Amino acid sequence: MTEQAKVPAIRFAGFTDPWEQRKLGEIASFSKGSGYSKADIRESGIPLFLYGRMYTQYETRVDSVDTFAAPRPGTLYSKGTEIVVPASGESAEDIARASAITREGIALGGDLNVVYPQRMVTPLFLAYGLSHGSSQKLLAQKAQGKTVVHIHASDLKGLGIAFPDVTEQQAIGTFFSSLDDLITLHQRK
Q1: DSSP 1-37
Q2: The total number of structural domains that make up the chain
Q3: CA 48, 52, 57, 58 torsion: positive or negative?
């Protein structure tokens, strides 16, 4: 993207408007997942997303989960429009990733930063943007700690995010999502 005009060098056909640059804290609100952990996993119950899944079964788009837990009061459930970023991990590179939760009703476990973007930014586009390129590198730089690294909502709020209009975001998200699906299909063969 050229800095002066804020227009990427390569675009999908039909898109010409400049991209907007804002701090993530200006275009999203934040929360934390509730205290579920691996010890809470059961054969059945409410669907549960734990931060460890981001290291063992990472997906940019999460449509379903295969872990469950008994429901508890105070549980934070997905709305199907949020992004989750691990709050801790073993390395700065591991922690600098995001997943868009696209299904409502999934319990969001502990040690997750939960990001609720405003309507000007689509969750899938934001998850790809946070997990790759310059935003991913900046996020990794914000990780604090030695043995276990942490990222807090305050670190996320200051992150600069470049984004086009929603229609172009949807086209970009769909394109990368179809590439992910194709890669997954070939890995299963």
Answers
A1: -BTTTTB-SS--TT--SPPEEEEHHHHEEEEE--S--
A2: 1
A3: positive
pLDDT of 4 > 50? The answer is no
pLDDT tens digit sequence for 37-49: 899 999 999 999 9
Q: Is residue 181 part of a domain?
A: yes
Q: Report how far residue 123's alpha carbon sits from residue 101's, in angstroms, rounded to the nearest whole number.
A: 8
Q: Find the CATH number of the domain harbouring 61.
A: 3.90.220.20
For 153-166, the pLDDT digits (tens) are 999 999 999 999 99
Rounded CA separation 38/129 (Å)? 28
Cβ-contact 137, 111 below 8 angstroms:
no
Whole-prediction pTM value? Answer: 0.89
Distance in angstroms (rounded) separating the CA atoms of residues 127 and 136: 10
